[in-house]
Specification:
It contains 21 helices and 31 strands. The chain is of the alpha+beta class and 653 residues long. The longest helix is centred in the middle third of the chain and has 28 residues.
């Protein structure tokens, strides 16, 4: 039969569809109900065939499937793992484009090896972003679309800035990017997990450090400064931070599904109303925001329309979805980098102190694990999975522990070269003394979030392994010791971290640093230490921002090394920086993470006297701050191990 055209030409409170020559409201296709009746898992053949059939119904030649959810989250719930469903790729960043006769997945260098192992080459072409000769998504579309073709996407799953950019690129060549009323993956996903809506956890002032009312007032000041009447907050971590509430809707991320509209006089929270119980209501009242009105999560577009019809000027983030952006007429819309993200990135005194305390306890957990690993490895029973489980257990024993902050990257030997490797039953390797073991892990505590990576060799490393590790260490130490002016760009630190590797023609394919939340997301922006100075999250550093410091090196098929600490931006003393950048202000880093760096992997001849002194001073701190806690936890063996691991290093003779 002839396929009728069904696609969105705009987003407003009502979803409007063009069907042939007329207009209809409602759902895109009736067949999605039929497809949802049978919950038997489908093969890749069937999934792609059904999506392509729907594409013909919509008269589109290409359909874009991103990795994010409606809130542009990096880490997503099982309910939102559309990219994984259609590709089998489990990484946290990627974009698939399905055409009627071919399909491709783009992902960055962190996931090249992982995606290569997860994609079915019979159905998918892997596009390794950043490598020479690999076409960008734009280039691939322009090379494969027929004249006048339509490209479809879900407007809730694409940032408005990207929608506008890609739309303009396509329009220049006579193509059109259109927003579909229904997500095609959702239509065919017959056994899709339900969206989570778990209970909320009020975060006491002892951990948040600032009442919700004060945070909301700071947002309202921003609205006043920009002549806006209200702001639509769609990022989940920003909502959790503003209201001093935490959730568990996304694994390892203490957030909950919601939208929040803040006006000068009202707060409208769009979420599952059942979980706003008496305890949460009492919390909101004590936080000074008891006037908050709760509406159903699915009513966000009608809610925006109320503000629009009231003649209000609405502020949205540059990261907001096209669906929210298009719901606001251009003359009533103001878009800029999220002011809430900027506020959240600068920790208050209570949050900063909590982060430091959390890292002492977390350091004790990791030290106990590394000691246990050294004692247990010869038994032959330690694997990547069992090691990660043991580390989880040591963290669970720490005060104020809530959960992990992400699934541990427990990677031995060649698996360590997969930057964001996650062990599974199929890939689980024994940990032995014959290679490098990389463990990247973290915890969620009521008073802070941690993220730490250490690379260790339990046997005798090769000269090349020692050189790679030491060059990574030199970059790591250079960042940790940096002195810089207020608002320094993150690109500065990215270069510092890479120089020792670049000196011999080595490099790594990921950023050097990401922000981190206070009992929130393990990845938070701003700040970011990346090579791209135009990155929106490169907002410049100010006091009490927190970032990771994590250079690395990865030899495919052999090993990976990474060293990662969480650092806090602090004021530099006048004694060390007498000229204070002509009054601009001088900053430096305080390292929060307290875990020794393995000396066995260090080629001492490559370290300068200053670098050796810096490393020794750090190790003294680790022993002084973590050592007493190990004794309190009745683990003298771990204390003795730490004493040995932090012994002073002397220059090579």
């Amino acid at each position: 039969m002839k396929h009728s055209r069904r696609y969105l030409v705009g987003i407003s409170a009502l979803l409007v569809l063009v069907v042939g020559g007329g207009v209809a409201l409602g759902r895109a296709l009736n067949k999605d109900d039929e497809l949802a009746e049978d919950r038997t898992p489908k093969s890749m053949d069937v999934i792609l065939a059904e999506i392509r059939s729907l594409m013909q119904d919509y008269s589109i030649e290409a359909y874009i499937v991103p990795s994010v959810d409606a809130h542009n989250s990096e880490y997503i719930s099982q309910h939102d793992r559309r990219l994984q469903y259609v590709t089998n790729f489990t990484g946290s960043a990627g974009t698939a484009i399905i055409m009627l006769g071919k399909a491709a997945l783009w992902t960055d260098s962190r996931y090249h090896l992982q995606a290569d192992g997860e994609l079915d080459a019979a159905h998918w072409t892997l596009m390794r972003e950043g490598l020479p000769g690999v076409p960008t998504r734009d280039e691939w579309l322009l090379a494969n679309l027929s004249p006048g073709a339509l490209v479809g996407t879900d407007p809730f799953l694409i940032a408005s800035t990207e929608y506008g950019r890609l739309g303009a690129v396509l329009a220049e060549r006579g193509y059109r990017l259109i927003a579909l009323e229904r997500n095609l993956v959702d239509i065919v996903w017959n056994n899709r997990p339900p969206q989570t809506a778990d209970e909320l956890l009020p975060l006491p002032l002892a951990y948040s450090g600032r009442r919700a009312a004060d945070k909301v007032q700071a947002v309202r000041v921003t609205l006043q400064e920009h002549g806006a009447n209200a702001i639509i907050v769609s990022a989940l971590d920003e909502i959790a931070w503003l209201l001093n509430l935490r959730g568990s809707d996304i694994l390892y991320n203490p957030v909950f599904f919601a939208y929040l509209i803040v006006s000068h006089t009202h707060l409208h929270l769009y979420t599952n109303a059942d979980r706003i119980n008496a305890t949460v209501r009492a919390h909101l009242a004590s936080e000074g925001v008891g006037e908050l009105e709760v509406r159903d999560y699915r009513d966000i577009l009608p809610g925006i329309d109320e503000y629009v019809r009231g003649g209000n000027r609405l502020m949205v983030s540059t990261a907001c979805s096209q669906a929210l952006y298009a719901a606001i007429p251009a003359d009533q819309r103001l878009q800029q980098y999220s002011p809430v993200a900027k506020l959240k990135a600068v920790k208050n005194a209570v949050e900063a102190a909590g982060m430091r305390r959390a890292h002492v306890r977390d350091g004790a957990a990791v030290v106990r694990y590394l000691h246990w690993l050294e004692q247990s490895v010869d038994g032959g029973n330690v694997t990547e999975l069992s090691g990660a489980a043991q580390l989880h257990d040591f963290r669970r024993q720490q005060d104020l522990f809530v959960d992990l902050s992400f699934a541990a990257i427990s990677a031995f030997g060649p698996n360590g070269a997969i930057v964001h490797y996650s062990p599974s039953e199929d890939t689980d390797r024994p940990i032995t003394r014959d290679g490098i073991y990389l463990i990247d892990s973290g915890g969620q505590y009521l008073d802070g979030t941690t993220d730490v990576t250490r690379s260790v060799h339990l046997g005798e490393p090769t000269a090349f392994q020692r050189e790679c590790f030491t060059r990574v260490l030199k970059g790591f130490l250079s960042v940790a010791a940096a002195v810089f002016p207020v608002r320094a760009s993150g690109t500065t630190f990215d270069v510092l971290a890479r120089k020792a590797l670049w000196d011999v023609g080595l490099d790594y394919g990921h950023g050097t640093g990401h922000g981190i939340g206070a009992f929130l997301g393990v990845h938070e922006y701003p700040p970011s230490f990346v090579s791209n100075s135009a990155s929106p999250s490169n907002q410049g550093l100010v006091e009490n921002m927190f970032s990771s410091n994590e250079p690395g090196y990865y030899e495919p098929g052999q090993f990976g090394v990474r060293i990662e600490d969480i650092v806090q931006v602090v004021n530099a003393t006048a004694a060390t920086v007498p000229y204070d950048f002509n009054g601009r202000g001088a900053l430096t880093f305080h390292t929060n993470t307290l875990v020794p760096i393995q000396q066995r992997l260090i080629e001492r001849a490559l370290l300068s006297p200053a670098e050796l002194a810096q490393l020794n001073a750090y190790h003294r701190r680790v022993l002084e701050e973590v050592g007493p806690l190990l004794l309190q936890q009745n683990d003298p063996g771990a204390h003795q191990w730490l004493t040995e691991a932090t012994k002073e290093m002397v220059a090579a003779s």
